[in-house]
Write a structure and sequence with these properties.
By secondary structure, the chain is an alpha+beta fold. Helices cover 42% and strands 13% of the residues. Helix 7 (213-228) runs antiparallel to helix 21 and helix 19 crosses helix 22.
Length: 610
C-alpha cells in the first residue's frame, strides 16, 4: 500500500512483549486511520464491560495516511480508549511530533495494553522498541517530564505524556505534548496513568512511500501558499480562537456562572482584544500555518497559553474577571494534564453547589486563590472536595443528589464545551449527538445557527450538523489533520482528496469520505450501546435540564430557554437521517449498508435491533 505504512505496533506493558503486525488492506480502505482505526480496534479487542482503568483497556495512538507529510496542518495524532469519564468510546486529537515520528518509525497505529509493574515509558526507535523505567519522571508535571525526555533522547523526538492528573487517575486527565498541546478529554490521560505509563517517545528515520511524491510536494507547497494568502489569515493570526470571545458575548452564548447565562458582565476583561494587548508570543503544532496558541505572562509572571475554550470555562463560567489569573489557572491545568473544559465545568458545578448550601465547603464565584488551590487538590486527589471533583460532574451529581443533576453541565458524562445553548437548539443537538459526549469539535454549528435564525427548530439545522460531523468528525479525524484552515480562512476541502490521491494513489471524492464518516459514526454509536448493555434510549442524547427549565435572565435574549418538544423533533430527524431507530441505535438495514453487518450479532446480545 502507498501512503500507509501498513503496520501496527503492539506493546504489552504487563510482560514487556512487543510485536509488529501487518494489517490487511481492507482495514485501511474501510477505516483509513485515526478515529477509524481506533474505533475498530476498541470494538474488536476490549470486551464489553471492561473497567476503563483496568489492564484490560487499551490505549491507542493512531495516525492517518497524510499524518506528518509536507502539507499544511497535519501534525496531529488521535489518542483513544474506553473512557473512564463516560464509560463509552473516548478519543481526542492533539498536535505532536509523535504522530510523524511514529510514521517515520514504520507504524500507523500503536496499541498499548496491560499494566506495567512500576512507572514506565515506551521508547520507539524504528524497529527497536523498549519499555523503560520512569521513576525519575513520575510525579513531575508534563512540562518538566517532556524536558527531561528531550535531554535524554534529543529534541527531535515525538512525545506523548501525562501530568500528575493522569497519574492520580483524574477522570478527565488528558494526554500532553509540546509544552501546551492537549487531547483526549474523556480521560485518555487517566488510562495512561492506570497502566503506569508516563510517556510514549518515538523517533524514526524513514518516510512512508507515496504514490506520487513529486505531485505531493507541489501540492504541499501550493497549499501552504494558499492558506497564507487567504483574506482572513492576518486577522486570525492576531487572536486565534480568542476572536470568537466577543462574538459569544454579543450573541449570548458565552457560558457564565455554570451555564446559567450567556453573557458575562466582565467579558471585556477576558476578551481577545485584552489578550492581544498582553500577548508575548504564539505557538502551534507541527506543520502549522495558523498558530492558535497565544501566550501571555500570567499573574505569577510565567508564560501561559490561552485559547477560547479555556478562557470561557476557567473565566466567565466560574466568575473570574482577570485574564492573567485565568492564564495561571490554565497553566496549572496544562502542567497537571487536566482538561480545561471539564475542569472549568466541575469547578463551576462546585461553586453553584456551595452557593446553594449543598456542599459544606465554601467556594465563591471568582475566588482565584481558592480555585488555584482546588486545581492542585483535583490533580492530586487531595482532600475530600478535590477527590470528588476529580470524577467529573455526572458522578458528583449522583453523589450529592438534591437535583444537582439539573445543573451538572454534561452529556453522557462529558462536560459541555464553551457555548451556552439556552437560545441555540441546533448547537444543543450537536452537543447531544457528539460521538464522545458534549464536545464542539465535531459539529460547531453555532455560527451557522445564528446566521439562519437561532429560534427555529427546523430540519435544515440537522442537515448542517451531519454535514459538519462528516467533515470535522470524519474527514479530519481519519486523515488526522487540523480543521482550522478550512473553518477559519476557507481552505477548500477539495484539497484533501488531492493530497490523499497523491499519497495513496486512490482517486476518492469527498462523497467517498462522507460514506466512511457515516460508517465510523455508526460503529462508535454501536460501541456506546454495547457498553451500556442495552440500557440505551434517546435520553442519552439530551442536554442538561437547566437549558429547558431555567431561562436566561440577562442580555437581549432574557427569558429564552430550549423547547423540549422542538428538541425532540430535531433529535428524531437526526436519527432518521443517520439510519438509526427512535432510541438512537443503528438499524440492521443501516449496518448492512455500511458494511458493518459483523456488528449485528454483538449488538443483539444486549438489545433488540430494528
Amino acid at each position: 500500500m502507498k501512503g500507509w505504512t501498513g503496520q501496527l505496533l503492539r506493546v504489552n506493558l504487563s510482560n514487556k512483549d512487543v510485536t509488529t503486525e501487518k494489517y490487511p488492506k481492507e482495514f485501511a480502505l474501510q477505516f483509513v486511520g485515526g478515529r477509524g482505526f481506533a474505533a475498530k480496534i476498541l470494538w474488536d479487542e476490549v470486551p464489553k464491560g471492561t473497567n476503563p482503568l483496568s489492564p484490560g483497556n487499551k490505549f491507542i495512538a493512531a495516525v492517518g495516511p497524510l499524518s506528518g507529510l509536507a502539507m499544511p496542518n497535519v501534525g496531529k495524532v488521535v489518542v483513544a480508549a474506553k473512557s473512564p469519564l463516560t464509560g463509552g468510546y473516548g478519543d481526542g486529537n492533539l498536535g505532536s511530533h509523535f504522530g510523524s515520528q511514529l510514521r517515520r518509525a514504520g507504524y500507523d497505529v500503536l496499541v498499548v495494553e496491560g499494566k506495567a509493574e512500576t512507572p514506565s515509558y515506551v521508547l520507539i526507535q524504528d524497529s527497536e522498541v523498549n519499555v523503560l523505567e520512569a521513576d525519575h519522571l513520575w510525579g513531575k508535571g508534563a512540562f518538566e517530564a517532556e524536558q527531561k525526555l528531550e535531554e535524554t533522547h534529543g529534541k527531535s523526538i515525538g512525545t506523548l505524556m501525562i501530568g500528575q492528573g493522569g497519574e492520580h487517575l483524574v477522570k478527565y486527565a488528558t494526554v500532553r505534548s509540546m509544552m501546551g498541546r492537549s487531547g483526549g478529554r474523556p480521560g485518555m490521560g487517566a488510562v495512561m496513568g492506570s497502566k503506569n505509563l508516563k510517556a510514549l517517545v518515538a523517533k524514526g528515520s524513514s518516510t512512508p512511500e507515496l504514490a506520487s511524491p513529486e505531485a505531493f510536494r507541489q501540492l504541499g507547497r501550493d497549499g501552504f501558499k494558499d492558506i497564507r494568502e487567504k483574506p482572513g489569515y492576518d486577522e486570525w493570526m492576531t487572536q486565534g480562537t480568542m476572536l470568537i470571545h466577543a462574538w459569544c458575548q454579543e450573541y449570548s452564548v458565552l457560558p457564565s456562572y455554570n451555564f446559567r447565562e450567556g453573557q458575562f458582565e466582565h467579558a471585556e476583561a477576558l476578551s481577545g482584544g485584552t489578550m492581544e494587548k498582553l500577548k508575548e508570543k504564539t505557538r502551534g503544532c507541527p506543520s502549522c500555518t495558523m498558530q492558535c496558541g497565544h501566550c501571555i505572562k500570567d499573574s505569577e509572571g510565567l508564560s501561559a497559553e490561552l485559547d477560547y475554550e479555556n478562557v470561557a470555562l476557567l473565566g466567565s463560567n466560574i466568575g473570574m474577571r482577570d485574564l492573567r489569573e485565568v492564564a495561571t489557572l490554565n497553566r496549572l491545568a496544562d502542567e497537571y494534564g487536566l482538561d480545561t473544559i471539564s475542569l472549568g465545568n466541575t469547578i463551576g458545578f462546585a461553586m453553584e453547589a456551595s452557593e446553594k448550601g449543598i456542599l459544606d465547603e465554601k467556594l465563591d464565584w471568582g475566588d482565584f486563590h481558592a480555585t488555584r488551590k482546588l486545581i492542585t487538590d483535583i490533580a492530586f486527589r487531595a482532600d475530600n472536595l478535590g477527590n470528588m471533583l476529580a470524577d467529573g460532574t455526572q458522578i458528583m451529581a449522583k453523589q450529592l443528589g438534591k437535583s444537582t443533576q439539573n445543573f451538572a453541565m454534561q452529556i453522557k458524562g462529558l462536560e459541555i464545551s464553551g457555548y451556552d445553548c439556552h437560545a441555540a437548539p441546533g448547537m444543543a443537538l450537536a452537543f447531544g449527538v457528539c460521538s464522545i459526549g458534549a464536545h464542539h469539535k465535531e459539529s460547531w454549528v453555532i455560527t451557522h445557527e445564528v446566521d439562519v435564525g437561532r429560534e427555529t427548530y427546523d430540519e435544515s439545522k440537522v442537515d448542517k450538523i451531519i454535514e459538519l460531523q462528516r467533515i470535522r468528525g470524519g474527514l479530519f479525524e481519519q486523515l488526522v489533520g487540523c480543521r482550522f484552515p478550512w473553518i477559519e480562512v476557507g481552505f477548500d476541502l477539495e484539497w484533501y482528496p488531492k493530497y490523499f490521491a497523491a499519497a495513496t494513489g486512490l482517486k476518492w471524492t469527498l462523497d467517498d469520505f462522507w460514506v466512511l464518516s457515516d460508517r465510523i459514526y455508526s460503529l462508535v454509536r454501536s460501541y456506546w450501546v454495547r457498553e451500556f448493555d442495552g440500557e440505551w434510549d434517546r435520553s442519552m442524547d439530551y442536554p442538561p435540564a437547566r437549558w429547558f427549565t431555567e431561562p436566561l435572565s440577562v442580555g437581549p435574549l432574557s427569558g429564552t430557554k430550549l423547547e423540549k418538544e422542538g428538541y425532540e423533533k430535531l433529535l428524531s430527524w437526526y436519527y432518521q437521517k443517520r439510519g438509526w431507530d427512535e432510541r438512537g441505535i443503528p438499524t440492521k438495514k443501516r449496518l448492512k449498508e455500511q458494511d458493518l453487518e459483523w456488528i449485528i450479532p454483538e449488538l443483539e446480545k444486549v438489545t433488540k435491533l430494528s
